[in-house]
Amino acid sequence: MIDPRLLEKKNVAYEEHDPSYGAVYIYEAKLASIRSKYQKIEVLQTKNHGKILLIDDFMMLTEDSEFIYHEMMVHVPLASHPLAKRILVIGGGDGGVVRELLKYPRLQRIVLVEIDEEVIKICRQFFPEMSCSLSDPRVEVIIGDGVEYVRDAKEGFDVLIIDSTDPFGVAELLISPEFYQACRTLLAEEGLLMQQVASPFFTPDIFVKAFHNMRKAFSFASPVLVPAPFYVSSDWSLGLASGSDRFFKKEIPEGYWNPIPGLKYYNPDVHRASFALPNFVQELWDRSLQSPEFAR
Question: What is the pairing mode between strands 86-91 and 157-163?
């Protein structure tokens, strides 16, 4: 519950993460504010950081920093798997992940499954530089439940990218053992899964449960740490997993990946460094190997 005294201020948005910590966004204009069937969606215009997308009062992206997250979500698995041609994206209705995927001419098919059509509509209007990617002929957009799609899909994919909101509430199904097993079945033997796993500092319980369940389905898995300037705690965790070590690469061999012009964050040195874990994250990883429960 946000302190009501804060709500008296104009042109200020608040993102509360626990009773002692939150974030403040000062904006020049509120460009959109709707409530869809699933969530509240807002777009704010700021002076220094461009437009900001918020869902249920949590910041999803800022125009000036989204490249870090989206480049890492895509180029870590795509640089690791040079033969990947068929990609499934769960979530990602803003189009940022698909924009990065389209930088690989070898990709033949990209399927994006987004549960909330309003997210796509809002982003087409206010973030066209990202969402225009969804109109590419190689991309099929499906409005539906990603968990159900993975469970019922009749085709296989080389890479599965899960760009969802944090796995709380209903979205917790995205870190369930059943979901990961369905992902494992959907992917080819050497396919890769890449997933957003939230903050290891603020949500260690989610981190431990996600990687424990991920490891039950996939023989190879690892946290991938990403600096996210506007996300709570800055360091953010992604998860890379596979049933085989062929394309599960913590280090890109020389000559394995052709550099893509215009990338602002990702490169093979960053790739290698993102698998290095601070001690407290290593401890969480070690716990996840034993149990899905986090005990302080």
Answer: parallel
